[in-house]
TrEMBL record:
The lineage of its organism: Eukaryota, Fungi, Dikarya, Basidiomycota, Agaricomycotina. This is FAD-binding PCMH-type domain-containing protein. Residues 1-26 form the signal peptide. It comes from Tetrapyrgos nigripes. It holds the Pfam family BBE. Belongs to the oxygen-dependent FAD-linked oxidoreductase family. Keywords: Oxidoreductase, Signal.
Length: 603
């Protein structure tokens, strides 16, 4: 089979020759229920000749997966290359060139773990089996058709930034949008339906946030984008709502969407905008990525650039009591409302004993104006006896300011397990604040970190078309993300215990504190109870109707995507319709799935 070579610098080309396209389970060929997707061990899995023919139909762009941890295992063990993989495991740059690797290690499922011994297993396992590095719409349609005809799990992937497991799937055939990186400047976009006339940018599916920032800056404008430079803009980020340092000024990323160029799962090419296929536009703008169709390009507003002032604040509990420390956190929490009201965006990471606020990002205000805002907070810290460090600087434009936020430029991946909640502004008023702080204090005492994002994500233009953003965003004062550190050398049982701690211990008090709220579907726990309400709120019913209209064959799947509850992975990791399964793996309370995977051996 002739395929695109996909050989990161640390993986020898010969590895591909050592990997078989078939996987053995026990002694025999698997028997698959008719309502389940095929796996490589099935008797009717496509032959190599069939894959060869498909590869030719997509212009030779098919890639067979080589697990990124392969250099750490026999028979392809290489000590130097393995060390490189281990040393860079939490760096985005290691995973971005891979057609199969994902940045949330839980969903790799220990398939080819670089931290296990050389004689440990290295299989394709939970990684996709094959990937098409798409460059044309026709290749996407051919891949969809092949997956449908062969009853193979279909996956959409870009960068691998995915905390919810959508970018992978056992036995899957993926399209890879990573190299679709065209950008187009539109000097005068005019749409009455979108209530917008002005500059816009059309970005292809593979464009990173940082690339889009650079392109906008060259034209003297800014776009609403994410904190992490290498997140794919057109994928789950904007489709899942997308918070930004500019959100308190320009709204969420989904609020900037003007139109989408879309490929539906039945092979149609559509424009989704407030004027055309408006239901699909509504769903794409906040209703979750990889669900209703495949975004080929997205067109977004290019907003005026603005000067930025950035402040940083750090302190610990050294020399003060725990009560005083949490009084300081309370003072900070109250302060964030006024800061966000003035157009600011704040990120803070705190534990039981230390607080790091970086950045306090404020557009359109001078150093003196920001100091005036922070003076009340700093006065309160002085009263509490807190020994703090406060720094402030200003920048003439957004791009320079963004480049000077160290915590954004050096983001590590795969280091934590996520949970959390959108916390309404009312929880930080004088009456509610003590209860809120006690919940945060208890979470910290249980060993979790709080990643506290404060903003005001209200709609900035009342004439703007509606979208599917979770309504809880509009009332939120904070996105409070709970974190437990990930252990690279943990056993499957220990991994599940970490996830269980988030699901069953850390997050329940937040749900009780804000029962009518929800959370950010891109940065959350994939085992979130009642995820339909938590991620989509009152929009879920309409989103499901749109899902059924545009993806009637249910080719697009995510366990927490709209309609995802109609499918589940069984004990073998096989994706099946729920009604077809005799036994469905229940999230986080059954180790059988992971144990079975760990028994698989490559032929």
């Amino acid at each position: 089979m002739t395929m695109i070579p996909h050989t990161p610098r640390f993986i020898p080309t010969c590895i591909a020759l050592l990997l078989s396209s078939r996987v053995a389970f026990g002694d025999g060929i698997s028997t698959r229920p008719s309502a389940c997707r095929k796996l490589p061990e099935d008797e009717d899995w496509p032959s190599l000749a069939t894959w060869d023919a498909f590869n030719a139909s997509v212009d030779g762009r098919l890639i067979r997966t080589v697990p990124i941890g392969s250099p750490c295992h026999n028979p392809t063990f290489d000590a130097d290359q393995c060390q490189f993989v281990q040393d860079n495991w939490h760096e985005e740059s290691l995973h971005l060139p891979s057609s199969s690797s994902i940045m949330a290690p839980f969903f790799a499922n220990g398939s080819c773990d670089p931290f296990t011994p050389p004689d440990g297993q290295c299989i394709i396992g939970s990684y996709v089996q094959y990937t098409v590095n798409v460059s044309t719409k026709a290749q996407v349609v051919k891949t969809l058709d092949f997956a449908r005809e062969q009853n193979i799990r279909f996956v959409v992937r870009n960068t691998g930034h995915d905390y919810m497991g959508k970018s992978t799937g056992k036995g899957g055939l993926a399209i890879w949008t990573h190299y679709l990186q065209d950008m187009e400047w539109i000097a005068d976009y005019d749409s009455e339906a979108a209530a917008y006339r002005g500059p816009a940018i059309r970005a292809s599916a593979g464009v990173y946030v940082e690339q889009l920032y650079d392109f906008a800056a060259k034209n003297g404008r800014v776009v609403v984008g994410g904190d992490c430079p290498t997140v794919g803009f057109a994928g789950g980020y904007i489709q899942g709502a997308g918070h930004s340092v500019l959100s308190s000024v320009y709204g969420l990323a989904a609020d900037s969407a003007l139109e989408y160029d879309v490929i539906t799962t039945d092979g149609r090419f559509l424009t989704a905008s407030p004027a055309q296929n408006s239901d699909l536009y509504w769903a794409f703008s906040g209703g979750g990525g990889g669900t209703y169709g495949i975004v080929w390009t997205v067109t977004v507003k290019a907003n005026p650039d603005l000067p930025v002032t950035i402040a940083n604040l750090t302190f610990t509990d050294a020399g003060i009591s725990q009560d005083a420390y949490w009084e300081a956190i309370a003072a900070y929490s109250t302060f964030t409302l006024a800061f966000a009201d003035a157009g600011g965006y704040l990120v803070a990471l705190y534990s039981q004993s230390s607080f790091q606020g970086a950045p306090f990002f404020m557009p359109n205000k001078t150093i003196d104006e920001v100091n005036a805002l922070t003076s009340t907070l700093l006065t309160r810290l002085d009263q509490l006896g807190v020994n703090y460090t406060y720094q402030i600087n200003s920048f003439p434009g957004f791009r320079d300011a963004y480049a000077n936020i160290p915590s954004f430029q050096g983001i590590l991946i795969g280091t934590d397990t996520f949970g959390g909640r959108l916390l309404p502004r009312e929880l930080f008023t004088e009456i509610s604040l003590p209860k809120t702080i006690q919940v945060l204090r208890n979470i910290a005492a249980a060993g979790a970190l709080a990643y506290d994002v404060s903003l005001k994500a209200t709609v900035k233009n009342e004439d703007a078309p509606p979208n599917a953003v979770l309504p809880a965003w509009r009332e939120a004062g904070k996105l409070l993300i709970t974190l437990l550190p990930w252990n690279d050398t943990a056993t499957p049982e220990e991994m599940l215990a970490i996830r269980n701690q988030i699901t069953n211990v850390i997050d329940p008090p937040l749900r009780q504190l804000a029962p009518n709220s929800g959370t950010y579907l891109n940065e959350a726990n994939s085992d979130e109870p009642d995820w339909q309400h938590a991620f989509y709120g009152k929009n879920y019913g309409r989103l499901l109707e749109i899902k059924n209209k545009y993806d009637p064959d249910q080719m697009l799947y995510g366990s927490t995507a709209v309609g995802g509850d109609r499918w589940a992975e069984d004990e073998d990791g096989r994706l099946c319709r729920v009604e077809a399964q005799q036994k469905i793996r229940k999230p986080m309370d059954d180790l059988s799935f992971r144990r079975q995977i760990l028994q698989v051996q490559e032929l």
